[in-house]
Amino acid sequence: MEYAFHLYNKIAVNGMVMATEKLLESNAREKRFPLQKSMQSAHSCPTPPNAPPVIVCVGSDLAIGDSLGPITGSMLKYKTQGVSAFIYGTLASPVTAKEIKYLRAHLKDTHAGSQIIAIDAAVGAEGDIGLIKLLSSPLYPGAGANKRLGALGDISILGIVAEKSIGNYGLLNSTRLNLVYGMAELISDAISTLLWQRQNAGVCEELVPPLSL
Predict the structure, then answer these.
(1) pTM (2 d.p.)
(2) Cα–Cα distance, 113 to 8 (Å, whole number)
(3) pLDDT tens digits, residue range 27-55?
(4) Which helix (H) or strand (E) holds 20?
């Protein structure tokens, strides 16, 4: 399953909120009802539907084209003050290729059962620059630079920041900060809106008294 929204689409944020919610719900159903694809116990407790997902923003601030993740993470830190959320990867503490292996182990130990949204910059066709893609599949960090770092997350958000080329030097050297910043604003607006909605939904459920028969 895949959704795509352009940077200059006026309804991109609302569309991304709904798309992310659908992807998380679909992923949650697969985890609760794994059929025969997993040996998971039928008595295991699923993650509550309104539990906040863990956000992992991958990238480095050493190259503009690769800074989508940490800029998004820093924006999310600000926009989600007051929300119960776990966000990894900011300008102050980026998640780069060196940290992926250690972070993956940390997520497994600390956030077992939580859904993970992985965010990263990507390269693509020239006409796709400015597109934000939401995928029902994990993120494969470093794929654009031909690195094999393994899968990360349950669903992924990719921002196409440059045209794919030999060596992908465009990703590192010729991407405009305005493009990356604008995409980070859209992604952070969508994710923060979703987190606030989920938290408020959880509060409303707690306030509704149970019905007595």
Answers:
(1) 0.85
(2) 35
(3) 998 876 554 444 344 444 444 555 679 99
(4) helix 12-32
